[in-house]
């Protein structure tokens, strides 16, 4: 399979390493300094582009890929609110293909399945309140994390007592704290911590007067995310439309 890489930071380099080890070819690498590469024959020859960039450029990158007939696998977050409907329309009505996930880790996919099942059970036990905390490296621009939002939406969909998620507290790298996780009962708070070089920790806690139930996913490195992205690209090369980990992993 021919792969183009959009974004060549730590994640992009790790994806390159794993893709090559699985027998794929990297035909084009695009970063902030060579945007003209989108117009190259090398880029247009790619079966799939794997995109890990930033919220403010992700959607524009999708459009550039689609203009060249290249399918996209993307782990960029923070663009859904503004461009979600446009992407959905392009994939459902205009024949474009995007595999998007807030997290490509196989472990997170399993964690997500556990999260949905636990929330379904907890719908029958209103004495438990629920909150979430996510911790990431200091370079992460968005908060709460895309994975945190996805997990929260899964909970809200299954808990009648929660209407929506909201931002809890934010603990900055310098130790200062903004906001609070003391929110209205109908809201699920997602608190964020930014420290060190942590790849990602997501903790969901159900608390009652009697006891507490906690589930956590703790990523040891970015390798699991990179491998998942390459597996998603292999899947996307053979499928069309708006795809997600629910299509890839049948739990």
Tell how many strands the DSSP assignment holds.
12
Number of helical elements = 8
First and last CA, distance:
27 Å
Strand order of the largest sheet: 2-1-3-4-5-12
Radius of gyration: 19 Å
Beta-strand percentage range: 25-35%
Structural class designation = alpha/beta
Mean pLDDT rating: 95
Could you spell the SSE succession in H and E letters? Answer: EHEHEHEHEHEHEEEEEHEH
Flag low-confidence runs. Answer: none
Sequence-ordered SSE layout with sheet pairings:
Layout: E1 2-6, H1 10-21, E2 25-30, H2 41-44, E3 48-51, H3 55-67, E4 71-74, H4 80-93, E5 98-100, H5 106-122, E6 129-136, H6 146-158, E7 164-171, E8 177-178, E9 187-194, E10 201-207, E11 212-218, H7 223-236, E12 242-243, H8 245-248
Parallel strand pairs: 1-2, 1-3, 3-4, 4-5, 5-12, 6-9, 7-9
Antiparallel strand pairs: 6-10, 7-8, 10-11
Helix pairs in contact: 1-7, 5-6
Describe what you observe in this structure:
The chain is α/β, with parallel strands linked by helices and 251 residues long. It has helices at 10-21, 41-44, 55-67, 80-93, 106-122, 146-158, 223-236, 245-248, and strands at 2-6, 25-30, 48-51, 71-74, 98-100, 129-136, 164-171, 177-178, 187-194, 201-207, 212-218, 242-243. Strands 2-1-3-4-5-12 form a 6-stranded parallel β-sheet, with helices on both faces. Strands 8-7-9-6-10-11 form a 6-stranded mixed β-sheet. Helix 1 (10-21) crosses helix 7. The longest helix has 17 residues, at 106-122. The radius of gyration is 19 Å and the shape is globular.
